[in-house]
Amino acid sequence: MSRALFLLVFVMQFTFAFHALRTGRPTRWIFIIFMAPVLGCLLYYFLEVFPNSREHRTVRRRIRDIAKALAPDAELKRRAEEVEINASVDNRAALASECLEKGMFDEAIKLYEGCLQGPYRDDARLAFSLARARFYNQEFVRARELLDRIWKTNPKSDPEEVQLLHARVLEAMGETGAALAQYESLRDRYVGFEARYRHALLLKNLGRWHEASALLADIVRHAKRSALESEQEWVKLAKREVETEGAPASV
Known about the structure:
mainly alpha, Serine Threonine Protein Phosphatase 5, Tetratricopeptide repeat, 14 helices, 0% strand, extended
């Protein structure tokens, strides 16, 4: 083995061993990495690192997308069968989420309402999901009431997500001034590009293109900071708005 190759393998071993030590992996991995230089590093990567990586999550998401394209109702059917076997709150909420994704808003609402009983009456996660279902079903007033309830009973439960949905509800109700205030408040707090994109879209719909273009340009400028596929979708939409400068899009 040449000196350069030996050095490269040693650096690779040291890197993986340091990662195992820093992340609290079992100490046996350090011995495996140094006893079997190349094979040990490969085993460590594919058994410990890759399953928790962004790449693995992306692969799994793409596999799920392909499965849904081939059998679009398979997941819905599976969730329904699980509820028949065990009508737990978790199973009913999972079925409701699938109904929501399929555009079956009335069914999702009934399921979420059934979950929000007894000890789960003030469950913020379920209440937020029900608010989303009511929003997509154009029940804006009732969605707003649910969001207000979440703020009162669980003020620390995903406040940015609750506020973003609240801004969308206000916008849908025609309360554009209040919606703009909510979007502006989220501008430097919301993690991700969705809030900025929706803010820009509302500004554009109001004819305030100069302000909207500044927000859209900001999204495009910071796009490289996020490699998440879900965030890149907002970047694509922002680029499309910048390029067209035509009729506002809706999401």
